[in-house]
Amino acid sequence: MQHISLTDLNLLIKDTLNTQLEPSYWVVAEIGELREARNGHCYIEFVEKDEESNQLLSKSRATIWSYSYRSISAWFQSITGESLKAGMTVLANVQIQFHEVYGLSLNVKDIDPNFTLGERARKKQEIIAQLKEDGVFEMNKSHALPMVPQRIAIISAESAAGYGDFMNQILDNDYQYKLQSKLFVATMQGDKAAQTIISALHQIHEQMENFDAVVLIRGGGAQVDLDCFDDYELAAHIAQFPIPVFTGIGHERDETICDLVAHTKLKTPTAVAEFLIRGMRIYEEKINLATQNILAHLNQKVEREQHKLNDRKHSMRYALKKHFNKAENQLGRYQQKLQYDVRKSFQNTHQKLEIYEKTLELINPETVFKKGYSYTSLNGKSIMGQKLKKGDELKTITAKQEIKSTVKTAENRD
After folding, report:
1. CA 260 – CA 128 distance, rounded (Å)
2. Strands 381-382 and 375-378, how do they pair?
3. CB atoms near residue 146 (< 10 Å)
4. CA 278, CA 274: separation in Å to the nearest integer?
5. Which letter, b or e, does each residue of 8-41 get, where b requires 16 or more Cβ atoms within 10 Å of its Cβ?
6. What is the pLDDT of residues 15-29, one digit of tens each?
7. Which one, 44, 140, 248, 386, has least CB within 10 Å?
8. Is 351 exposed, middle or buried (CB count within 10 Å of its CB: 0-12, 13-18, 19+)?
9. How far apart are CA 30 and CA 45, in angstroms?
10. Residues of the chain with pLDDT under 50
11. The predicted structure's pLDDT at residue 252
12. Are 256 and 225 a contacting pair, CB within 8 Å?
């Protein structure tokens, strides 16, 4: 049986690969592991997994030598905003190398950062599509924002500069508006960030009646620091949160998925604070304008009523004057009639008095006595109607005398 040595076999494989393969290939693979050596070399393990089961399909060792790694990594970071790391899917230009001792390996000559950007964008669009398919993408935007949100739940790192900027803007606002705020501490970057933010949302949910809105804020940072805000679970929790969520994540170039599902997205923590203060200012201006409109309306109404009152006063004054003139004329007529009636009554009374006077004069005893008549009485009563008898003492009064006499005889005359 013909045989060859292992070395000869490996050299045959090496020679066959060198003659049969292209000088390099562009390969799509995920970085399973990445290690930077002290000498500047970068050692990578490329892997490919089944998209559905995540089962490992293939694996290869790769190396980026130090003289290439410095330029490749710097260029990649300048384009993508992040450094090469495990978990990334990249498009790498590789040379296939086979060493009779170390076996098969890949020598990385270049990595296309634009592919990684596109891959990230693809994953991002897949998450957005999934949120829309789940029917939650617009849920938080549908919540009615309170007219003046003043009770704010804040999710941030306590030592974050963004949180400090937000609080300074709130506490030192020019209008001296007061907001009630409570901080729920969370990690705002790294692998654990999404879960700590979700935990903070759960805490807020337990006391949700105390808040009008949630503010998710952090300071600025590298693009890679924002990866946690493209997490499906975190975005789904924000989208379905039962009160409005504001984001001020502190980036200018791109929007995270959390920004897209939030009720209101703003660029920075300071912008969130300014938005809240501006909302209160607008509300105050509306109140002031409404107050001015009410006062103006009341002034117009008072002015109209004053005109009506003046018109009625003039009308009443005219009516009263007319009434007084009529009454005065009528009173004058009454006065004339009364004067006439009184004068006539006086005349009639005077005439009656004259008649009474004459009558009294006629019946005055003195007048009668002067005509020769006399008055005779018995015991102070006229003798008329009395039956006199002998011995009665009579008194007789004349005009000039009072005569006393005694009855000697009294005879009836028939």
Report:
1. 9
2. antiparallel
3. 14
4. 6
5. eebeeeeeeeeeeeeebeebebebbebeeeeeee
6. 888 788 888 899 999
7. 386
8. exposed
9. 8
10. none
11. 60
12. no
The H-or-E segment that residue 357 falls in is helix 269-363
Dihedrals φ, ψ of 356, to 5°?
Answer: -60, -35
Query: Cα(228)–Cα(256) distance, rounded to whole angstroms?
Result: 9
Backbone φ and ψ of 238, nearest 5°: -65, -45
- Identify the residue whose tokens are 């029917």: 135
Q: What is the C-alpha separation between 398 and 372, in angstroms, rounded?
A: 7
Letter for the amino acid at 336? Q
pLDDT of residue 94: 93
Give the type of residue at 182: K
Tokens 């939030």 appear where?
Answer: 262
As a whole number of angstroms, the distance between CA 164 and CA 157 comes to: 10
User: Residue written as tokens 């634009």?
Assistant: 114
CA 199 – CA 125 distance, rounded (Å) = 25
* Tokens of residue 113, six digits: 């950062």
Mark out the alpha helices in 21-151 (DSSP H runs). 66-80, 113-133
pTM, rounded to two decimals: 0.58
Residue linked to tokens 């950062």: 113
Tokens 């791109």 found at: 254
pLDDT tens string 128-158: 999 999 999 999 999 998 888 999 999 999 8
